[in-house]
Amino acid sequence: MTLRLWPVKTKERRATVLAGLILLQALCALFFVSDVVEDFRLDGKLDNPHLALETVAAFALISGVVFLMVELRALLSRMSNMQTGLDIAHGQLAGVIEEFFDDWHLTAAERDVALMILKGLDNDSIARVRKTAPGTVRAQATSVYAKSRTEGRAQFISLFIEELLAGSDHPDDGVRKLS
What keywords would UniProt list here (predicted)? Predict the structure, then answer.
């Protein structure tokens, strides 16, 4: 299960709503500008309070359209930067996990079990997914904990969280902290 602070569809919906509001506001500005031009053409004077109010409204609407366009562009840029950051973080996490596993000399089966532990699966679920006996998974998990010098599932998971929060360059640094 993937948890996102702000679902992708919500961000896209917000951008679409903002674009719609910009379009609506632009149409209103066009109406007021054309009305001001027509009234000025007929009357030829700007001393009419109604005409002055329409001119101010048209200017405000145009200013709003420009402001909203800038905001929409900034929103789209932030969305792109956030996605890029998430992609980088995901790639870095995978790299950190692989470095740890390499340093601990985990077997392929132990790597599978360790990844599933990190994903939050319990031993019985891991056994079902891997089509092995729960006892085999328990033995492999125990081996993973021993090789990582952790005392169980919670400490094993916290090792990776601590590594990500600390931003350490070498996986052994996280192991030394817990020893």
Answer: Membrane, Transmembrane, Transmembrane helix
Name residues whose C-beta falls within 8 Å of residue 155's C-beta, 6 or more positions apart in sequence: 145, 178
Domain 105-178 has what CATH class?
mainly alpha
Pick left, alpha or beta for residue 120 (phi over 0 → left; psi -120 to 50 → alpha; otherwise beta): left
- How do the domains of the chain map onto residue ranges? 8-86, 105-178
The pLDDT tens digits of the residues spanning 10-57 come to 777 888 888 888 999 999 889 888 988 888 888 777 677 878 888 888
| pTM as predicted | 0.48
C-alpha distance from residue 64 to each of 18, 21, 74, 175 (Å): 12, 10, 15, 55
Query: Which residues, other chains included, contact 36 with Cβ-Cβ below 8 Å and sequence gap of 6+?
Result: 51, 54, 55, 58
Instruction: Render 63-98 in DSSP notation, one character per residue.
Output: HHHHHHHHHHHHHHHHHHHHHHHHHHHHHHHHHHHH
